[in-house]
Amino acid sequence: MAEAPADARTEDRAGAAGAVQPPAVRVQGLWKRFGEQVAVAGIDLELPAGQFVGLVGPNGAGKTTTLSMVTGLLRPDSGRVEIDGHDVWQDPVAVKSRIGVLPEGLRLFERLSGRELLAYTGRLRGLPGEEVDRRAAQLLDVLDLAGSQHKLVVDYSTGMRKKIGLASALLHNPRVLFLDEPFEGVDPVSAQTIRGVLERYTASGATVVFSSHVMELVESLCDWVAVMAAGRIRARGTLAEVRGDAPSLQAAFLELVGAHAGASGQDLEWLGGAR
After folding, report:
1. Inside any domain, residue 53
2. Where does a domain end: 120, 143, 173?
3. Is 151 part of a structural domain of the chain?
């Protein structure tokens, strides 16, 4: 059966909820500078709950810095962030119990096996041992890691690392899941497995916020999108709203971020020529 369009998925989820939900994430006046470089320039955002939300932009747009501040990993110069109604910096314990994070450049305890890593993560989260074991077994099975659960994480492939990192982020059943380039460097089989788990997760009413610069992936997954460039939000809304009259999200994105074709190559007459 063909997959429903993203706009239809948004309507279905909104209808299932029966009412407009408060935003999963509220960002107000967020700034971050590194020396003279402005990474994030006073952005305001409200990310809808119960949806697949994409934060997209070219490399260097400020996506990773924004997600790091939103999740409490990096303190902003100014601004306020609320997740599920709780201030990230004033009520960090409540916020961290409600979020899962899979950051870019994921670092794991490599001398643990996959199963040991999940057991350790679950106990850090305060889950009962039996419940940790039950959830870990289910996640390992769904993510196709059961056969490698006793293998050390240091020996995992890139795709396996992404999947065990996702399992760790989901173990405590967070209300909002933040993912920074979750499919980068992942083989198609692992990517499809991760995608299936995330779609199941959002179908239950939870929220996924992920950053990416791959527009085809965003267009196939997301219900709602914010486009970021040079530390600012250039557009936000449903896929249809952001896409507008453009033939694709990719075309709309290129126009929004001010991309241009650049030189035609006349200055590279030596490239590919006779040697």
Report:
1. yes
2. 173
3. yes
Q: What is the pTM of this model?
A: 0.83
Q: Are residues 146 and 232 in the same domain?
A: no
Domain count for the chain: 2
Q: Encode the chain (275 residues) as per-residue pLDDT tens digits.
A: 444 555 545 445 544 444 567 899 999 999 999 999 999 999 999 999 999 999 998 888 999 899 999 999 999 999 999 999 999 999 999 999 999 998 877 788 889 999 999 999 999 998 999 999 999 999 999 999 999 999 999 999 988 898 999 999 999 999 999 998 888 878 888 888 888 888 889 888 899 998 887 888 888 889 899 999 999 999 999 999 998 888 888 888 888 887 655 555 567 777 776 66
**Three-state secondary structure readout of the chain:** CCCCCHHHHHHHHHHHHCCCCCCCEEEEEEEEEECCEEEEEEEEEEECCCCEEEEECCCCCCHHHHHHHHCCCCCCCEEEEEECCEECCCCHHHHHCCEEEECCCCCCCCCCEHHHHHHHHHHHCCCCHHHHHHHHHHHHHHCCCHHHCCCEHHHCCHHHHHHHHHHHHHCCCCCEEEEECCCCCCCHHHHHHHHHHHHHHHHCCCEEEEEECCHHHHHHHCCEEEEEECCEEEEEEEHHHHHCCCCCHHHHHHHHCCCCCCCCCHHHCCCCCCC
The CATH number assigned to the domain holding 210 equals: 3.40.50.300
Domain range for residue 158? 105-173
